[in-house]
């Protein structure tokens, strides 16, 4: 063997190892940067309440987290079951003091719909804290059968998980499913399980491993209104003369079991049962100061509607021209005016702030597919700033021309999908506006009237005759 040959082989082998490490470096970097599930966090106790009394699925989980490690913990992770995150409409987490926790989406390998939750106070070693988690899911109840006759009951199925889906070990867990009826066709039986009136109780279960799933199916009668707002166009027009006009164009659809066979008006009027899957009417809540209320459908006024003044709001009962069965739809326009001093404020800086709801109440347990809110600002506004209560898509601004506007008004266009009643929150719009612009229209009207009078005077004094009349002699 030549001298130094062994040294050359060692150097060559080391070079190959360096090349391999350089090749794997990006992969190692990604793995090291991805969030790691903390094995020291344990769900000491989980209590779930699954509310299936309406067309929405409302899940409230009370979680007692325990830190079994030696170091304090500042955050934990939430992971949705596969295929469940797409139906989520609303989510909120609160700590023991009822303060909201910050939730940010993260990417964890092999898992989708994962979130990082930051604790308001660090969780020290050996300590526990209680977290309240509330979910609201839409389109989570499936009519089964999918079509029924006019006299049949509406049955739906709920698909879920017997256990609380978590990346952490759960020491003890129990669940209660609240139904809208005692008529239960079938339900998953994982012992211990019991039925009391219209409530199904699961558990308590012990020592549940992370990511444990057990299919849960509940088939029961649910005649609550399965009414969905497929499209809602909300128009807010601001006037510094003391009025704010609101108009909503609403399209609704009954998403329950479709009507099979013909509809009999005679049988429907004879049926006096209040527990029916059709929708005869529903109630809308308006602000207490609303006035000049109007409502009409494509054929004109809905004459059977009623307005009732309550202490803190106005109750408007809307009754469509025909009862709504599964697959049937309707549309109407609702408008009203409110005094601007209750929603429009002047700030110490001299700017103006409009605080109004991005979405308002349509009916109880509502589900809105698509919402578009347009806000028509006063003439001549500048430096417009917006503050959203949650993530909203802002479309490109538009220009609107109203009566006697010499220039157009700026229109803020906002869009949001998959909303529920919990999304009824305030939108803040701050802008600069000069008070002298209030006299823009009166001055424009005065100029137009002056020009008109001047034109009339000139017209009267002019003589357009071809022959001058001869003066007659006495």
Automatic annotation (TrEMBL):
Signal peptide: 1-33
Pathway annotation from the record: Protein modification; protein glycosylation
Record flagged with keyword 4Fe-4S: no
Subcellular location: Endoplasmic reticulum membrane
Membrane topology field: Single-pass type I membrane protein
Keyword presence, Disulfide bond: no
TM regions (residue ranges): 443-462
Main localization, broad class: endoplasmic reticulum
Coiled coil spans: none
Record's keyword terms, sorted: Endoplasmic reticulum, Membrane, Signal, Transmembrane, Transmembrane helix
Assembly: Component of the oligosaccharyltransferase (OST) complex.
Function: Subunit of the oligosaccharyl transferase (OST) complex that catalyzes the initial transfer of a defined glycan (Glc(3)Man(9)GlcNAc(2) in eukaryotes) from the lipid carrier dolichol-pyrophosphate to an asparagine residue within an Asn-X-Ser/Thr consensus motif in nascent polypeptide chains, the first step in protein N-glycosylation. N-glycosylation occurs cotranslationally and the complex associates with the Sec61 complex at the channel-forming translocon complex that mediates protein translocation across the endoplasmic reticulum (ER). All subunits are required for a maximal enzyme activity.
Family: Belongs to the OST1 family.
PANTHER family assigned to the protein according to its UniProt record, in alphabetical order: DOLICHYL-DIPHOSPHOOLIGOSACCHARIDE--PROTEIN GLYCOSYLTRANSFERASE SUBUNIT 1 (PTHR21049:SF0), RIBOPHORIN I (PTHR21049)
Protein name according to UniProt: Dolichyl-diphosphooligosaccharide--protein glycosyltransferase subunit 1
Lineage, highest ranks first: Eukaryota, Metazoa, Ecdysozoa, Arthropoda, Hexapoda
């Amino acid at each position: 063997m030549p001298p130094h040959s062994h040294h050359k082989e060692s150097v060559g082998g080391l070079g190959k190892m360096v090349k391999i490490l350089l090749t794997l470096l990006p992969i190692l970097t990604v793995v090291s940067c991805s969030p790691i599930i903390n094995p020291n966090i344990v769900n000491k106790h989980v209590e779930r309440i699954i509310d299936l009394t309406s067309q929405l699925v409302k899940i409230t989980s009370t979680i007692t987290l325990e830190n079994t490690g030696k170091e304090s913990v500042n955050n934990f992770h939430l992971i949705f079951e596969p295929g469940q995150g797409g139906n989520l409409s609303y989510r909120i987490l609160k700590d023991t003091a009822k303060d909201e926790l910050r939730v940010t989406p993260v990417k964890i390998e092999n898992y989708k719909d994962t979130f990082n939750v930051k604790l308001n106070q660090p969780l020290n070693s050996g300590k526990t804290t209680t977290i309240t988690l509330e979910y609201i899911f839409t389109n989570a109840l499936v009519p089964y059968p999918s079509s029924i006759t006019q006299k049949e009951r509406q049955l739906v199925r709920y698909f879920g998980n017997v256990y609380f889906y978590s990346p952490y070990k759960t020491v003890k867990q129990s669940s209660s499913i609240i139904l809208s009826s005692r008529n239960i066709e079938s339900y998953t039986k994982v012992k211990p399980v019991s039925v009391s009136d219209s409530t199904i109780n699961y558990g308590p279960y012990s020592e549940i491993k992370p990511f444990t799933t057990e299919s849960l199916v509940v088939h029961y009668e649910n005649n609550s209104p399965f009414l969905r707002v497929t499209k809602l166009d909300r128009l807010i027009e601001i006037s510094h003369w003391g009025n704010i006009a609101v108009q909503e164009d609403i399209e609704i659809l009954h998403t329950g079991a479709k009507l099979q066979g013909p509809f009999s008006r005679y049988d429907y009027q004879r049926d006096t049962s209040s527990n029916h899957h059709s929708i005869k009417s529903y109630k809308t809540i308006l602000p207490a100061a609303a006035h000049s209320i109007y409502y009409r459908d494509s054929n004109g006024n809905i004459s059977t509607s009623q307005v009732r003044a309550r202490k803190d709001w106005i109750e408007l009962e809307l009754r469509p021209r025909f009862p709504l069965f599964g697959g049937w739809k309707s549309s109407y326009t609702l408008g009203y005016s409110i005094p601007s001093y209750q929603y429009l404020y002047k700030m110490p800086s001299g700017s103006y702030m409009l605080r109004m709801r991005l979405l308002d109440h349509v009916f109880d347990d509502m589900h809105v597919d698509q919402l578009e809110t347009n806000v028509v600002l006063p003439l001549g506004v500048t430096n417009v700033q917006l503050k959203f209560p949650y993530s909203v898509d802002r479309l490109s601004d538009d220009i609107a021309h109203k009566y006697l506007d010499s220039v157009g008004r700026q229109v803020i266009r906002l869009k949001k999908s998959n909303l529920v009643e919990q999304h009824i929150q305030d939108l803040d719009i701050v802008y600069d506006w000069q008070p002298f612009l209030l006299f823009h229209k009166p001055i424009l009207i005065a100029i137009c009237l002056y020009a008109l009078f001047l034109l009339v005077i000139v017209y009267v004094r002019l003589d357009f005759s071809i022959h001058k009349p001869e003066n007659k002699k006495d």
